């Protein structure tokens, strides 16, 4: 019996260049990895879902993201789509940055900081320049590599892990120290690694190295080491027949129980659950319709590609103008938390430092709930997104109930609907973290508000319900 194993996919680079280009319609692309390059995925049409190590991304038209070197990834298309993959061989860029093989690129157009947002149009233009040059019958390898060099320069200086948090230029001395630490962790993850070891290598104190890393990345250094070890454990598990004990030892976990802890934190499942999931994806195989370089121009042409670029600018401006009501503002902010898991950890760490513990939303107002003839219509897709977002960020969810909008009976029905739906969902355990604030603006309503609070106390703990005067 042949055991399940995920394999490396080789990349066919354009002769004389560090670049490979593919354009395809993806139904499903089985799990695989690339050992020598990063892959930039750019959606020209439709949308796709990507699983990459512990990250889950949904990319729509004009979105792009980078799959880092060696990361196992699986792609699932949704309907009609057109996806561009651009591969950049990292060994060709070591003169630009000797540590390029070890950089973690935090490149997601849909979750960029202000510095990265400014660079996004240039990134898209360079991608298209490479594709159009590669599609020519008389393509010039020097031109292609020139565009690739410019693109990689942006990635190295704007889209790496440290720059994502800082959103500004980092002094070279700090950057070099950061690179040395990243390389050490990437190459020595299987050995004993703690703050004392890293500090000794850098000839500084333990507290200094801890604070240095925290200031640069806003992440705990020990958490980062665990994330690297968990990634390597995933790869070893999916590409070899080693036992979990062997993998644990080879990846630097001092005890096999810590590999389970690492997987729980980063992958939100056990190693065996993760392996079964990928075994299923592998068994489904790959189903794509790929186009040759010549077909890119003949079938889609420059107009399609440039139209995408212009439309993206227009839609970005329109989106910015539309963010007016609380729901749209919330969706804009929560989008920042939909990026890579390591970015989420940075944001969570920032919240903890700042003392952020709660999120306050009028979740039952007319933007989400409609009452028609006694029937409750609640946008549960949005409600579940809010609940899962608060859960992920470890925040208490304060839900405002604006009493004057409905009768006591109607509000009781809304709460019953919400509690029942939540108990039937994956987030049933989140209800104790919900707080309900019944707001009113007329002192005469206090008696009826108390009546509502008493009625719903069998569904929600009375200590999690309060009343408040609110004058808007």
TrEMBL record:
This is Helix-turn-helix domain-containing protein. Residues 179-277 form the HTH araC/xylS-type domain. InterPro entries: Homeodomain-like_sf, HTH_AraC, RmlC-like_jellyroll, RmlC_Cupin_sf. PANTHER family: ARAC-FAMILY TRANSCRIPTIONAL REGULATOR. GO terms for molecular function: DNA-binding transcription factor activity; sequence-specific DNA binding. It holds the Pfam family HTH_18. CDD domains: cupin_RmlC-like (cd02208). SMART domains: HTH_ARAC. Keywords: DNA-binding, Transcription, Transcription regulation.
């Amino acid at each position: 019996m042949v055991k399940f194993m995920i394999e490396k996919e080789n990349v066919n680079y354009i002769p004389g260049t560090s670049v490979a280009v593919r354009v395809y319609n993806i139904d499903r692309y089985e799990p695989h990895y690339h050992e020598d390059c990063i892959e930039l995925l750019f959606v020209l049409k439709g949308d796709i879902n990507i699983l990459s190590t512990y990250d889950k991304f949904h990319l729509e038209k004009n979105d792009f993201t980078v799959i880092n070197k060696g990361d196992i990834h699986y792609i699932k298309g949704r309907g009609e789509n057109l996806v561009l993959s651009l591969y950049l061989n990292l060994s060709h860029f070591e003169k630009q940055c000797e540590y390029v093989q070890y950089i973690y690129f935090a490149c997601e157009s849909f979750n960029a900081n202000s510095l990265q947002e400014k660079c996004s149009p240039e990134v898209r233009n360079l991608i298209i320049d490479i594709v159009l040059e590669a599609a020519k019958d008389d393509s010039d390898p020097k031109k292609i590599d020139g565009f690739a060099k410019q693109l990689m320069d942006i990635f190295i200086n704007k889209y790496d892990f440290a720059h994502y948090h800082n959103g500004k230029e980092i002094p070279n001395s700090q950057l070099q120290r950061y690179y040395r630490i990243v390389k050490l962790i990437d190459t020595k993850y299987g050995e004993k690694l703690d703050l004392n070891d890293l500090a000794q290598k850098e000839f500084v104190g333990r507290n200094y190295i801890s604070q240095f890393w925290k200031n640069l990345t806003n992440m705990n250094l020990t958490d980062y080491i665990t994330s690297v070890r968990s990634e390597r454990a995933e790869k070893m598990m999916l590409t070899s027949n080693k036992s979990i004990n062997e993998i644990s030892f080879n990846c630097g976990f001092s005890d096999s129980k810590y590999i389970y802890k690492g997987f729980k934190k980063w992958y939100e499942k056990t190693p065996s659950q993760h392996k079964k999931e990928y075994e299923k994806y592998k068994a489904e195989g790959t189903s794509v319709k790929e186009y040759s370089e010549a077909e890119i121009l003949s079938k889609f042409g420059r107009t399609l590609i440039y139209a995408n670029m212009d439309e993206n600018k227009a839609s970005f401006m329109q989106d910015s103008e539309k963010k007016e009501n609380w729901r749209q503002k919330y969706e804009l902010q929560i989008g920042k938390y939909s990026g890579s898991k390591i970015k989420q950890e940075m944001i969570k760490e920032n919240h903890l430092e700042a003392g952020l513990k709660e999120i306050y939303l009028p979740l039952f107002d007319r933007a989400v709930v409609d009452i028609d003839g006694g029937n409750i219509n609640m946008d549960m897709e949005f409600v579940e997104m809010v609940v899962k977002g608060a859960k992920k960020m470890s925040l208490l969810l304060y839900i405002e109930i604006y009493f004057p909008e409905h009768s006591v009976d109607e509000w009781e029905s809304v709460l019953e609907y919400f509690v029942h739906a939540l108990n039937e969902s994956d987030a049933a355990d989140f209800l104790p973290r919900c707080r309900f604030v019944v707001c009113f603006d007329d002192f005469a309503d206090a008696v009826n508000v108390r009546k509502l609070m008493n009625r719903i106390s069998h569904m929600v703990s009375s200590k999690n319900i309060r009343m408040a005067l609110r004058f808007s």
